[in-house]
Design goal:
- This protein is of the alpha/beta class.
- It is built from twelve helices and 17 strands.
- It folds into two domains: about 240 residues, 4-Layer Sandwich (Purple Acid Phosphatase, chain A, domain 2), CATH 3.60.21.10; about 170 residues.
- Strands 4-3-2-1-11-12 form a six-stranded mixed beta sheet, covered by helices on one side.
- Strand 13, helix 6 and strand 14 form a beta-alpha-beta unit.
Length: about 425
């Protein structure tokens, strides 16, 4: 019987994205999140007395600023070497983007598979063969599986591959292949990387994406970690997911339909955030808050969005170890505008004019080059996150127009006599 750990998509020193900059934001905690999650992975390997560790690509996050990232990694490999744990890794698309990594010497307990063709590494004492191939470039669109050798029936065969399989939303279609091609190789376990969400594709044989070990933005919400695999009598006996992340991302939707006053809004939001905190397994949280429902105080919210955002941020801070990525206001009026204003009043006429405002996509599209020039002159930190500032496409203009209309109407109702 032996045991190994399967991890992937470490993205060491990748900046976590999307948290709005404000006083009190956990800047240092965010900067060190991927390293601390990797420390958890190393500790897990030692505690589990794993025979080896597999890393399915994207250990790094592209070009390093200096050698500190590599030196950190080598130091952690030294800790595993002292524990008698070997490491087998392949380069993924983000690793291939780095020039420095190609010259960084690795400890003798680390096997880095080449990119020219698949290579097989035999562990005679365990009866294991590990087959793997790295990316040579950051965009590999060829099917790499076809070059992998057939499994040896005298050994437990593991395939190490960085792939999107048949494609996954939010990920480039790299090293495409299908599960049947993997199964045809006769391996007992396929250790995949590239997809950041945990997925067990098959159990006969085992084909597993462990997901990344630390969420980096709101699209990578939920628990993150690695798989601990136990093998007995040349068969997979257990595949157990272990959480390793140190910061947990979450989207929290709050229905404000029953919130008759701003105080009730605060109560509902505070309760929802506290509930999210209870489900974070003791980890700090970064939350995207989405306010929905036919809300009686809809106009009051839209009238002063910046103020309410700050008040909600204070609510989160008061819970402890909860920070807001952003607040999205998607509430609706509980009453129709006709019920609020009547039909033949001056205010109703003005509101109707606002509702008929049209935002000409052609005119707005003409602004895009000017926005691009402005963007090129601003510091890059402004654009971190999954929804970039000053980056519009024509299909966003209708939504933008609706938001502007809603803001104008809410402001008019609030100061024009909504009851």
């Amino acid at each position: 019987m032996f045991k190994f750990i399967h991890a992937a998509d470490i993205h060491l020193d990748s900046p976590l994205k999307g948290l709005e900059a404000h006083e009190g934001a956990p800047v240092e905690e965010i900067r060190g999140a991927t390293r601390r999650a990797f420390d958890n992975l190393i500790d897990l390997a030692v505690e589990e007395k794993a025979d080896f560790l597999l890393i399915g690509g994207d250990l790094y996050d592209g070009e390093w600023k200096d050698y500190n990232t590599g030196l950190y990694f080598v130091g952690r490999m030294g800790k595993l070497r002292q524990a008698g744990i070997n490491v087998f890794l392949i380069s993924g698309n983000h690793d291939a983007a780095s020039q420095i990594t190609r010259t960084m010497p690795l400890p003798d307990n680390v096997v880095h598979f080449p990119s020219r063709e698949p290579r097989s590494h035999i562990l005679e004492d365990l009866g294991v063969i590990i087959h793997g191939q790295s990316y040579r470039t950051k965009a590999v669109t060829d099917n790499l599986v076809s070059g992998y050798p057939r499994g040896d029936s005298n050994y437990f065969n593991i395939g190490l591959l960085h792939t999107s399989l048949t494609g996954r939303e939010g990920h480039e279609n790299y090293a495409p292949c299908n599960p049947d091609e993997l199964k045809s190789k006769g391996y007992q376990y396929w250790a995949l990387g590239h997809i950041h969400k945990r997925e067990v594709v098959s159990t006969d044989p085992w084909i597993v994406f462990p997901g990344n070990i630390q969420g980096r933005h709101i699209k990578e919400a939920g628990a993150k970690g690695a798989s601990v695999v136990t093998v007995d009598d040349n068969q997979v006996a257990e595949v157990e997911a272990h959480t390793l992340d140190v910061l947990r991302w979450a989207t929290c939707e709050v229905d404000l339909s029953q919130s008759e006053t701003i105080d009730r809004v605060n109560d509902a939001v505070g309760f929802a955030l506290a509930e999210q905190r209870e489900h974070a397994d003791g980890r700090s949280m970064i939350v995207r808050l989405v306010l929905t429902g036919e809300c009686p105080v809809h106009a009051q919210l839209f009238d002063r969005i910046p103020q309410w955002t700050q008040e909600i941020r204070a609510l989160a801070a008061g819970i402890g170890d909860v920070w807001l990525e952003k607040v999205i206001f998607r509430t609706r009026r509980k009453k129709s505008l006709e019920e609020i204003l009547g039909r033949d009043t001056p205010l109703a006429g003005l509101v109707e004019s606002i509702r008929k405002l049209e935002f000409d996509a052609a005119d707005l599209s003409d602004m895009v080059p000017e926005l691009a020039i402005l963007k090129s002159k601003l510091p890059p930190e402004i654009f971190s996150g999954d929804e970039f500032f000053l980056e519009f496409s024509p299909d966003q203009f209708p939504e933008l127009g609706v938001e502007v209309q809603e803001l104008l109407i809410a402001r008019l109702l609030q100061h024009g006599g909504e009851k």
